[in-house]
Amino acid sequence: MPIAKPANQVASTITSQHLSDRVLEIQDAFEVSPTKLQQIVAHFVEELKKGLSAKGGNIPMIPVWVMDYPNGTETGDYLAIDLGGTNLRVVLVHLLGGQKFETEQEKYHLPKGMRTTRNRDELFEFIADCLEKFFYKLHPNGIEKGTLLPLGFTFSYPASQTRIDTGVLQRWTKGFDIPNVEGEDVVPLLMDKINEKKLPIKVVALINDTAGALVASRYTDPTTEMGLIFGTGVNGAYYDRVGNIEKLKGKLLPDITDESPMLINCEYGSFDNEHESLPRTKYDILIDEQSPRPGQQAFEKMTAGYYLGELIRLILVELYEEKQVFQKYSKDSEQIKLLYTPYLLDTSFLAEIEGDQDLENFPEVVRLFQEFLKIEPTLDERRLSRALSEIIGNRSARLSVCGIGAACTKMNIKKCHCAADGSVFHKYPKFPERAADSLADIFGWKEQNIQPKNYPIQIVPSQDGSGVGAAVIAALAHARQAKGLSLGLAEAYKKA
């Protein structure tokens, strides 16, 4: 069954007519029709092609130098780290062959302020410290002298790569804004800190989390054609043909032919920076204007988890200023000062509101407002918050899958699995169902009377991309090296 238009039912229970009307106005502003989705996808396809051209475009379309498909026979022990928007994860992956693997891992929370530290060394020292703790937890007495543990570094930010073991940061995303890293190769920045600690570890592959999700899932499921992240940020990866990548022509060694596959990290959070097709609201415009990088990452700012909590906060601030909500609190009260704090509300705030099953009293909504804002919400304010969460969550899901629609259209993929990871996909109620419903609107499956379980393109949970994917990619790179095949641009390969 198609998912019903959100918020109508909840909005209709709001006793204040003015507030109910405002909710429906906001819903209309956030609505994305099937026709609009199809228009966005058509523009998206052209932008993907432009990113592969010699001139380039807003979407970086980064070749990540994974030029082989995994087949499940890869073996060996590999370290993997994943620098995400909230945590650093360190994993030891045992690839066992036969499409089997085992992992050991730890997660380390990024210290407060790390995203915007003024000293880049703090970030890479933190990563090296975590690696040191993890290494000696597993190997208290060290490992055999002369042995190096290969490390796959999942660095989920736009980075230019001339080889699989390099990555020059183009620009920070997901709220990071650390100086003197953009324009630098992050691999030696990390290796300097690893070597200072005399750790027997070497970065052999720099990957993106979407590339990892694709390769890890394809290791066990050969029908996988895309890797996706729906989390703090939003992104996708797929295999293209080298012959389609105009910007690589004349720059490759002969062993890489036009028919060779090339994994592309799209970094399509930057889609539509010109604001030609995405239906921005005034709240989206405000988020962009107040961000560290105005005019950049337009698609991400409308879809990704980092921004969803800020959307509801901006709406609640506007309604407060209209004297529609929280009127028992003065503007100089602690509660309203919290409400005016940018990015105080994260995506979990909306997800847990949508997860509240008691539609009469909304006790979880009460708890969340007390926890985040110290506000005691009225019943109408609880109903309002539920309606807004559904509106925001629904639009995020609908827009997010435009990247899938574009990549599959470009490559003429009619049937496949798309492997998805990220906190929004896994933890936001109804996101997978809304995403599937939106793909059906893009491709016209409803008109063909195709049932959801039979949709030709299915979004499925990914394997451990940042761990297993990084390990498999490192193994593929080792295999290419053993065959004497190139791992990057001709110039970079000759210098190595």
TrEMBL record:
The keyword ATP-binding applies. Residues 225-476 form the Hexokinase C-terminal domain. Its EC number is 2.7.1.-. Pfam families: Hexokinase_1 (PF00349), Hexokinase_2 (PF03727). GO terms for molecular function: ATP binding; D-glucose binding; fructokinase activity; glucokinase activity; mannokinase activity. Residues 24-219 form the Hexokinase N-terminal domain. It catalyses: a D-hexose + ATP = a D-hexose 6-phosphate + ADP + H(+); D-fructose + ATP = D-fructose 6-phosphate + ADP + H(+); D-glucose + ATP = D-glucose 6-phosphate + ADP + H(+). One of its GO terms (biological process) is mannose metabolic process. PANTHER family: HEXOKINASE, HEXOKINASE TYPE 1-RELATED. Monomer. Belongs to the hexokinase family. Catalyzes the phosphorylation of hexose, such as D-glucose and D-fructose, to hexose 6-phosphate (D-glucose 6-phosphate and D-fructose 6-phosphate, respectively). Mediates the initial step of glycolysis by catalyzing phosphorylation of D-glucose to D-glucose 6-phosphate. This is Phosphotransferase. It comes from Komagataella phaffii (strain GS115 / ATCC 20864) (Yeast). The lineage of its organism: Eukaryota, Fungi, Dikarya, Ascomycota, Saccharomycotina.
